[in-house]
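job 3f2a | input accepted
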Amino acid sequence: MSRVAVVYWTMSGNTEAMANAVAEGAGTEAIEVSDFSASQVADYDAFAFGCPAMGSEELDPDFEAVWNDCVPVFGDKPVALFGSYDWGGGEWMNIWSDAAREAGVNVADTLTQHLEVDDEGLVACKALGEKLAR
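job 3f2a | predicted structure (134 res):
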C-alpha cells in the first residue's frame, strides 16, 4: 500500500469535504496546504492535491505557491487533482491539469464537484483515494 499525501485548500468547505473522503479512501489524513511543503514530497508515494476554482478559473495564490514548489520534485509519482467549482463550469481543472502535464507531472486522475459534494461525489473521492493507495 502506498503512502498518500492528500493536500488541500478550501474556502467554503466543499474541497475540504472532498479531501477528507479522498484521505479516507487512501487510509490517511488530509493535510491543509499551509502544513505541507516540497520538502515532504520524498516521504510519500502518491499525492492528491485539491483546490477549488477561484476568481477567473484559477488556483488560490497560497495554494499555487506550494503546488509550484512541489511540481519539480514529484518525479514520476502519481498525482491526482481535485476540487469544487461554482459558476465557471470547471474549466480551471482543465487549465490546471494541462499545465501540470506540460510541467512533467504524472497526473493520475482529476475529479471535480459542482458546489457541495454529494453522496455520489463522496463515493468518487473515496475511490480516488483507494486508487492512489494501491
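job 3f2a | The longest strand covers residues 106-114.
job 3f2a | closed
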